[in-house]
Automatic annotation (TrEMBL):
This is PIG-L family deacetylase. Residues 1-20 are annotated as: Disordered. Residues 7-20 have a biased composition (Low complexity). InterPro entries: GlcNAc_PI_deacetylase-related, LmbE-like_dom_sf, Methyltransf_12, SAM-dependent_MTases_sf. It holds the Pfam family PIG-L. It comes from the Bacteria.
């Protein structure tokens, strides 16, 4: 957490501490929001990125230990040694402080039962991470290779090193990695109203009594931070600050991709054996999802349908039975070929190589647009452009069917809730059908 006195950056005078928010206001805010449990890491490694030794313990020790206990491989990478915690130290004293903080982190991991966790030390300058963005990104890439989940400080945390570490982690993470942020100073220095957390993509980890005790013991290992400063001043982490990390709850929020999912990612998926990466032809989830989605359509017959992101063409073939004409499209050549094969012998089906928000994906005069597990992969700008395309291409009184898995794919900038919110906020569309299932959601909006 360091890189300067608590409540300051390293260059700010010690006489100007910032006020500490009461932990109670955050507990009350959590109680008002029904947050899902933070998902424990999957089969790949969990990588925890920290700007300074102790960030990872303060913000994510309980979840990290739980994931490790569930069998996940855990890697920790620390950008700096935290040597600038006390600006008054000379060069040799700073070096000694950095060495001490490395030892403290190893001791903290031992307290958490994470003795076998690999720690990568990058040794970048404390309090100057933003100036070393490129170096930090390059150093993080090999550590994040193959990671299922990445935890990093929030990119809007008021400490500049924390923000820089979070930004670099997002840039370095593979497209297949689920990125999450953990706040540190944000919750200490501000109330929820002041901070404005993205509650719509937040999750919580509730620590067991044993986890809370081990986390408390781990934090106590950072003696350089919890004890009196070398000049006799207050500690970096005084009791009123530590109280924020001893509530029994750790808060995380998803750090979504800022760009749309790359077409190359889907091309790789379709290149797998069988060319059906989601088992659309055989899995019960896919078969049932199609049946439910089609049952949500309020009309028995449509004149002209468009299906961007047609995939293997299984849904396209079923749509053809209810539509006078269907234009299916996909950005992946293998998917286009699969859909053409699936709809061979159906002359009223046209299959194109096209992608949203290209106008060819939804021709003018369409009275039904069907998008199954497509829209959450678009960038924010492309999602906005797609809604404009729908409003222009779908005739008044026409329907738009959107289906999404309720999870959040690593490659996706949005989840199903965010896409749905965009439709609900758009006065050009009126909600007709709202289906919420255990694994997927489907909604039909009519063009006004």
């Amino acid at each position: 957490m360091s890189g300067g006195r608590a409540g300051s950056t390293s260059s700010a005078p010690r006489s100007t501490p910032r006020p500490v928010a009461a932990p109670r206001v955050w507990a009350d805010a959590l109680a008002r929001h029904d947050l899902p449990a933070m998902p424990v890491a999957g089969t790949g490694p969990l990588v925890v990125v920290a700007a300074h030794p102790d960030d990872e313990t303060l913000g994510a020790a309980g979840f990290t230990a739980a994931a490790h206990g569930a069998g996940a491989e855990v890697r920790v990478v620390v950008a700096t040694d935290g040597e600038a915690a006390f600006p008054g130290l000379d060069r040799e004293e700073r070096a000694a402080l950095g060495r001490a903080r490395r030892r403290e982190l190893r001791d903290a991991l031992t307290s958490l039962g994470l003795d076998d966790v690999d720690v990568t030390w990058l040794g970048l300058p404390d309090s100057d991470l933003a100036a070393h963005h490129g170096v930090l990104v390059d150093a993080l890439r090999p550590v994040l290779a193959g990671a299922t989940t990445c935890l990093a400080p929030w990119t809007e945390d008021p400490h500049p090193d924390h923000a820089a570490a979070g930004t670099a982690a997002a840039a370095a993470a593979p497209v297949t990695t689920h990125c999450w942020s953990y706040p540190i100073w944000a919750c200490v220095w501000g109330s929820p109203d002041e901070v404005g957390p993205p509650w719509h993509r937040a999750a919580r980890h509730d620590l067991s009594q044993a986890q809370a005790r081990r986390k408390r013991e781990a934090i106590a290992r950072f003696g350089t931070q919890v004890a009196t400063a070398p000049d006799g001043g207050p500690p970096i982490l005084p009791p009123q600050v530590l109280a924020h990390f001893d509530t029994g709850v750790e808060l995380f929020w998803r750090a979504p991709r800022r760009t749309g999912a790359p077409a190359a990612r889907f091309a790789d998926l379709y290149a797998t054996p069988g060319g059906d990466p989601w088992a659309t032809r055989t899995s019960w989830y896919e078969r049932r999802k199609r049946a439910v989605a089609l049952s949500c359509l309020p009309r028995q017959h449509y004149d002209s349908a468009a299906e961007p992101g047609c995939g293997t063409g299984e849904l396209t073939r079923e749509l053809a039975g209810r539509c006078g004409a269907v234009v299916a499209s996909d950005v992946v050549p293998a998917a286009v070929a699969a859909t053409r094969a699936a709809t061979a012998g159906l002359p009223h089906v046209t299959v194109r190589a096209d992608a949203l928000p290209g106008p060819g994906a939804i021709p003018l005069g369409t009275d039904l647009a069907v998008m199954s597990e497509v829209l959450y992969y678009l960038s924010a700008a492309d999602l906005d452009a797609t809604l404009d395309l729908l409003a222009a291409a779908v005739v008044p009184g026409g329907d738009v069917l959107v289906v999404h898995w309720r999870g959040w794919p690593a490659e996706a900038p949005h989840d199903a809730r965010a896409v749905r919110a965009r439709f609900d906020a758009d006065e050009r569309f009126e909600l007709l059908v709202d289906h919420v299932d255990t694994e997927f959601v489907a909604h039909v909006h009519r063009r006004r």
